[in-house]
Amino acid sequence: MLKQKHLLGLEGYPAEDIQTIIDTAFNFREVLERPIKKVPSLQGVTIVNLFFENSTRTRISFELAQKRLSADTVNFSASSSSLKKGESFKDTAQNIEAMKIDAVVMRHPTPGAAKHLTEFIDAIIINAGDGTHEHPTQAILDMMSLHEKFGRLRGLKIGIIGDIVHSRVALSNIYGLTSMGAEVTICGPPNLIPSFLQDLNVNYNDNLDEVIDWADALNVLRIQRERMGIGLVPSNREYRATFGITQERLNKHEKEIIIMHPGPMNRGVEIDGFVADSNQAIILDQVLNGVASRMAILYLLCGGKANVGEN
């Protein structure tokens, strides 16, 4: 089991726990390859998916992970809840816990919301994204995907490309990768790089071609226009010309490089469709590993009652 009760973020998260999650996730990946993709590991455990922001991949991934583990799942949507009638976040959370739940998977637009929730309820909390802060389960599935491809994380050179300052995926990846011994270089427009860069133990290079020459893999981020101010990115064409992962750009570099993307993709902006669909890209592997890694996280945090390998 893991040292911490909750998974709120990867800042300061024990490297040995990250490795335990990844190792367990590979066991569950084998389960997902079977004709019957279900184990009774969390039978009798009730998990609430508490989403205050729209989500497709993360929500479906968690729901599938819960069902594959035989957990009882309840989905909560803020848009159709009593929050619309003026009920407080605290009262909503405590009313849900009063129904005898075991864990909450929460996405919220406010940084720190998952940690705030731990002050109100005793259930296990898993952060599915809190504003521009962290998205730890995405980083774990990214690290699992890299481990699957290279057989290790220590010593890998990973470039994270794009809008770093608004990306909770970037921050969790930085914390997780550096903790696991990988080297990280971030690349993007200077006004989309966090001011606290010196505290992150990463390098910054605004020359994408130099980063491609250096890196083993690139994690390409979406331009998050819904989170940024107007005018931070002049135009899609200008961004693509400077920071877009195009086939033409990759062809200039005589090397193999792995391409990742957390989704959703803006094809033709930060990544070309041909690149996203190429053999260099492991984007769909990330999606499958998302289910396996979230199964591992739920299993380890909620005290799985059966062996991973059981049918």
Characterize the overall form.
Answer: globular
* Average of pLDDT: 91
Largest sheet: 5 strands, parallel
Report the CATH superfamily of the largest domain: Aspartate/ornithine carbamoyltransferase
What CATH first level of the largest domain would be assigned? Alpha Beta
The fraction of residues assigned to DSSP E strands is: 5-15%
Rg value: 19 Å
Please report the distance between the alpha carbons of the first and last residues: 21 Å
What is the third-level CATH name, the topology of the largest domain?
Rossmann fold
List the helices and strands and how they pair.
Elements lengths: L14 H18 L13 E6 L5 H12 L3 E6 L11 H9 L5 E6 L4 H5 L6 E7 L5 H15 L6 E5 L6 H12 L3 E5 L15 E2 L3 H7 L2 E4 L15 H8 L3 H5 L6 E3 L12 H4 L6 H19 L10
Parallel strand pairs: 1-2, 1-3, 3-4, 5-6, 5-8, 6-7, 8-9
Helix pairs in contact: 1-5, 1-11, 2-11, 5-6, 5-11
